[in-house]
Amino acid sequence: MADDVAPLAKAKLIQLDxxxxxxxxxxxxxxxxxxxETLKVSFANxxxxxxxxxxxxxxxxxxRSGDQxxxxxxxxxxxxxxxxxxxxxxxxxxxPEGKSGAVDDVxxxxxxxxxxxxxxxxxxxxxxxxxxGVRFLWGSFKFDGIMESMxxxxxxxxxxxxxxxxxxxxxxxxxxxxxxxxxxxxxxPASPARSPSGKPPGEAPMTPTxxxxxxxxxxxxxxxxxxxxAIAAANGIExxxxxxxxxxxxxxxxxxxxxxx
Length: 261
Description:
It is a single chain. The protein is mainly beta. The protein folds into 2 domains: 2-43 and 79-182, no CATH class; 207-257, Membrane-bound Lytic Murein Transglycosylase D, Chain A, CATH 3.10.350. Helices cover 9% and strands 28% of the residues. It contains 3 helices and 14 strands. The strands form 4 sheets. Strands 1, 2, 3, 6, 9, 10, 11 and 12 form an 8-stranded antiparallel sheet that branches. It has a two-stranded antiparallel ribbon with strand order 4-5.
């Protein structure tokens, strides 16, 4: 039963309004296909050496090379910055033939992320441009800023030359050092324990993953190559390309999502 399994929280990018505090009504959004493995947050203060004064005592040091007496201390300047670095994976391989809405070019997915790199004309100005404000939201984790940089790697191509798999790395920046903000989340309702395929524990056959095998390969080995995306979602697998050796996977789980061979 699909209602017995709590849905997996997915990260998303949301366009912000001009105040950079609220989602823009009718603005762009980008849902991730697979949640990131890690989020890297870095903080930096703006510092500079004060001009003039100090020194290391001039030439009368009498051989005291490297004497640090009199060296001026660094001074804090500005409010600092906070940055969030994220890597996402997108993959359109293994989709069932004839499936409605099937994507044949991974750039149709990554382009929704690249949107946030494109500067827009600043309201009231004909010469100034600003990138759109963006919120990265994943469960209770929230980060607002602008997209400073983005790198896209296309890794697999079809016989027609269409890219099928890509990794996207981007950095969001906000011009301040602030405490973490947490978005309230709703706890899923209590329900009887179920396996990913909806069966009670112990009744669903679980397949151990051989060393070095991806979920796509594991699904293909049992004739379910076209179901790997639904299997990944049902089992809560974040990175189907890197399964842990011995990891137990319910390969029947994809059937309850309505994806059939």
